[in-house]
Design brief:
Distance between the termini: 34 Å
Strand content: 15-25%
Largest sheet: 6 strands, parallel
Shape: elongated
Number of helices: 18
Structural class: alpha/beta
Number of domains: 2
CATH topology of the largest domain: Rossmann fold
Radius of gyration: 26 Å
Number of strands: 13
């Protein structure tokens, strides 16, 4: 990819987003080569200052972007944005309903300035009875079945990542690329909507279809009827844990041979996967006992050699030292706005046999303000006046 243009080279995006969903969309477009201009208030995107589990939001989802700081509450600030809109292909926002209309930056207004504009909004809900509600990832996980499926019976549990925010941004980016493709034929832009709730419902599709097919509600994952005979976390020697799976009859034969479980291989009650599923109540305790003296490393090595599915149980911070990610350059070093250097995961795709690189880390607040304003025709004196007036930073 270093010797050829990136797929979205030449596409200009103006981004009014914060938190995770909208910035994810912009990050994907930026990684694919678009020029993404992030508009921030003079004090900066509040995500820059989050603590706790939000500390990683800004550095994760704002790489490969430019930052300009504008007071959009002022008439001059809004005029600068409108001048920028005339030069861009995509406008992205994820503020609550009504915010962009109050600023005069809604699709109906901006499409009058730029008929070719693709306008993507990232919302909690698509238009309908729920659209007035304030949504968070947790909110839609609870009402959309994901928390129910993740936790034990009676204990709904949030998934361990912002899955709807991130996937909602992904679908926003997919919608943008589809709209750009359509524009090649029509010459016109259009509005794209992506939502948290509908994304979560999409994640629940297989469980919904399970009920549609069987008439029986899907059980939460910890108490579900597994589709596979062995598909479990095992606690083994010294209290270590490892995930082991045997999901086909061929794998069952290999598993029994590798561990010398001849009695199980010859047991007619276990000769097919479906039979092993029905036998889990007595088979699993037996297997847990037999494998309990093995270390996690020994079991992993045995499964690896046999070509059977397995996985160590890792915490996120341990992935920085993952040998596969290191060998495949799946982590890229970035410079944070405060000057520190850290590694971050790349998009999980290859194009032309190459991973999409990080061309720059998350920007410092307003680091590109002057250059972007100059690109739309403001003179040095006009830019200086805007700084003095407190319109830009």
């Amino acid at each position: 990819m270093t010797e050829q243009k990136l797929p979205l080279d030449g596409i200009r995006v103006l981004e009014f987003t914060h938190m995770v969903m909208g910035p994810t969309c912009g990050m994907i477009l930026a990684d694919l080569g678009a020029e993404v201009i992030k508009v921030e208030p003079l004090q900066g995107d509040a995500t820059r200052r989050l603590m706790g589990s939000g500390t990683g939001f800004f550095p994760t989802f704002n790489r490969n972007k430019k930052s300009i700081a504008i007071d959009t509450q002022t008439e001059q600030g809004q005029e600068i944005v409108r001048r920028l809109v005339a030069t861009v292909d995509v406008f992205s926002e994820n503020f609550k309903n009504g915010t962009m209309e109050k600023l005069g930056l809604d699709y109906a207004s901006l499409s009058q300035i730029n008929k070719k504009l693709i306008y993507v909004s990232h919302k909690g809900f698509l238009p309908g009875p729920y659209e007035h509600r304030t949504a968070l990832d947790e909110v839609v996980q609870m009402m959309g079945g994901l928390a129910y499926m993740t936790g034990p019976q009676g204990r709904p549990l949030r998934a361990g990542a912002s899955v709807n925010d991130i996937m909602g941004g992904m679908f926003g980016a997919i919608g943008v690329m589809a709209a750009l493709r359509a524009r090649e034929h029509t010459g016109k832009g259009q509005e794209v909507l992506s939502s948290l709730y509908e994304n979560n419902v999409f994640l629940m599709a297989t469980h919904m279809m399970q009920f549609a097919m069987t008439g029986k509600p899907a059980s939460p994952m910890p108490s579900r009827i597994s589709a596979w005979g062995i598909y479990d976390v095992f606690t083994v020697a010294q209290g270590e844990q490892i995930f082991l799976a045997v999901v086909s009859d061929t794998q069952w034969a290999i598993f029994c041979k590798r561990f010398n479980f001849d009695d199980l291989a010859q047991d007619a009650r276990l000769e097919s996967n479906n039979l092993r599923v029905t036998a889990r109540d007595w088979m699993m305790p037996l297997l847990r006992e037999r494998l309990s003296t093995w270390s996690a490393a020994e079991l992993g090595a045995a499964f690896e050699m046999a070509g059977l599915p397995y996985s160590p149980i890792r915490a996120p911070h341990e992935l920085f030292d993952d040998p596969h990610l290191k060998a495949t350059h799946g982590l890229a070093e970035i410079e944070l706005p405060d000057g520190r250097h850290v590694s971050t995961p790349l998009l999980p795709i290859m194009i032309g046999g190459v991973r999409l690189s990080v061309r720059q880390g998350p920007p410092k607040l307003g680091s590109n303000t002057d250059a972007v304003l100059a690109s739309i025709g403001l003179t040095p004196d006009e830019i200086a006046q805007a700084h003095v007036a407190g319109v830009v930073g």
